[in-house]
């Protein structure tokens, strides 16, 4: 992409031999489905404009950026810039912007993560469970009794009779967060004790026999903290972009 010279510099972008007026850019961004992403970046620029970085922070930010993108040689750096249509002077501002954004997230939502974790904990708790599902109510009842009364191995019956992919693992699923299973199944698991076998229940289109194997409560460790911070940020930026789009279209 090139920019035309002299008096047309402010008015025209040249892509190949096709001139594009600046007045066409927003309509084109909208038609190409790129307007939300463009507005997001503008909103972020405004949000982080007042976030200062010390000299050591700036130096570290550039080092981390180069390490993250494996820019350990001049050739790698050149290829990275060319692939993205950047110039060498763009590298440092991009690296600093990443660091400013991280500081903005921490300063804005860092003290809200713990309370948000308590709101989300029931969805973040993980379970390991065994499942047999079938569309035949009578078969589900029979399998339940064969496990409960006859002591037949759950895994063997799941491999033979379960109609989902869990048959390949002997019915064993997980560990998965409680937000993953069907809500009715998640509710059963959330109030189960390890080893508890449930009688057949209707869940969606299936009759299921389920047993909780292990309950793994969520912990607010560093990865979870970072994940929740990103969730809070993404909720905010999504709302800001939507407001900007509505304002643009009104």
Summarize the structure.
The protein is α+β, with helices and mostly antiparallel strands. The protein has helices at 25-31, 35-48, 55-68, 74-84, 88-109, 113-124, 137-148, 154-161, 183-190, 222-249; strands at 2-3, 12-15, 18-21, 126-134, 172-177, 201-203, 206-216. It folds into 2 domains: 53-122 and 219-250, no CATH class; 126-216, Chitinase A, domain 3 (Roll).
Overall outline? elongated
Domain count: the total is 2
Low-confidence stretches: 1-12
* Overall pLDDT score: 91
What's the alpha carbon Rg, rounded to whole Å? 27 Å
Give the fraction of residues assigned to helices.
40-55%
**What does the main sheet amount to?**
4 strands, antiparallel
Oligomer: single chain
The string of secondary-structure elements, in order, is EEEHHHHHHEHHEHEEH
Number of strands: 7
**Alpha-carbon distance between the two ends:** 32 Å
